[in-house]
């Protein structure tokens, strides 16, 4: 083999080896590049769920905080409601006048009456507010005892829901009319000294009918209804 031929073969072998190395390098680069690409893609995919999870966590925390604040506010409202005292129920029956002195009593005898006294007298100054002892409807109102006779002077009779009647006599003025609806404690007149009266006072009766002659003991009735006299 000539020297020229040997040299040619050596060059060819070197070129082949270099080509193989280069090819191998390219393959490695391609593999590494592909891996890097996959890693990059995987990194991108992993980052998105991480962001979503963080947002979900923040939203959940905000919801929990809002719920806690609502619960706190509800507790405050509940405490305020609990502290509030229930509204007092209006009494069904009350005293017909205030700041009085009890004088002639029910069934008391005396020259002032043709029979025994039919009611309870409350001594009060003229012009004292006279109140409806209970809720009901006015069935008598006016002079001449509202129809029961001149001895009563100006008078009122109220029919109540329990079927009883109350009468208020010797009034100076009357503030209601027949048919008026009244509530317990409502001012219906002013006390006076009209009719057969020995001095300013309110004559008060409880009756089973609207008319004279059906009176009950008014003090016993009011006390049984819870009125302190």
How is the secondary structure organized here?
Layout lengths: L2 H81 L17 E2 L17 E4 L5 E3 L4 E7 L11 E7 L4 E10 L6 E2 L4 E5 L9 E7 L7 E2 L1 H7 L5
Antiparallel strand pairs: 1-2, 2-9, 3-8, 4-5, 4-7, 5-6, 6-8, 6-9, 9-10
Give an overview of the whole structure:
- This protein has 229 residues and is an alpha+beta fold.
- The chain has 2 domains: 1-84; 101-224, Distorted Sandwich (Glucose Permease (Domain IIA)), CATH 2.70.70.
- 38% of the residues lie in helices and 21% in strands.
- The protein is built from 2 helices and 10 strands.
- It has helices spanning 3-83, 218-224; strands spanning 101-102, 120-123, 129-131, 136-142, 154-160, 165-174, 181-182, 187-191, 201-207, 215-216.
- A hairpin with a 7-residue loop joins β9 and β10 (215-216).
- The protein is rod-shaped.
- Residues 17-44 have low confidence and may be disordered.
């Amino acid at each position: 083999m000539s020297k020229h031929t040997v040299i040619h073969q050596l060059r060819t072998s070197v070129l082949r080896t270099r080509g193989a190395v280069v090819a191998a390098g390219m393959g490695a680069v391609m593999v590494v590049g592909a891996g890097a690409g996959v890693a990059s893609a995987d990194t991108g995919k992993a980052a998105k769920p991480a962001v979503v999870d963080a947002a979900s966590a923040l939203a959940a925390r905000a919801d929990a905080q809002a719920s806690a604040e609502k619960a706190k506010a509800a507790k405050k409202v509940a405490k305020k409601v609990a502290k509030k005292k229930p509204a007092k129920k209006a009494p069904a029956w009350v005293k017909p006048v205030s700041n009085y002195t009890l004088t002639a009593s029910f069934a008391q005898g005396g020259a002032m009456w043709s029979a025994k006294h039919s009611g309870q007298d409350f001594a009060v100054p003229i012009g004292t507010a006279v109140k409806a002892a209970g809720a009901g409807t006015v069935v008598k109102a006016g002079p001449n005892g509202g129809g029961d006779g001149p001895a009563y002077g100006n008078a009122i009779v109220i029919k109540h829901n329990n079927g009883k009647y109350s009468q208020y006599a010797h009034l100076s003025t009357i503030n209601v009319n027949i048919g008026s609806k009244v509530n317990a404690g409502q001012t219906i007149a002013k006390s006076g000294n009209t009719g057969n009266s020995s001095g300013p006072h309110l004559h008060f009766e409880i009756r089973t009918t609207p008319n004279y002659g059906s009176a009950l003991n008014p003090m016993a009735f009011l006390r049984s209804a819870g009125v302190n006299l």
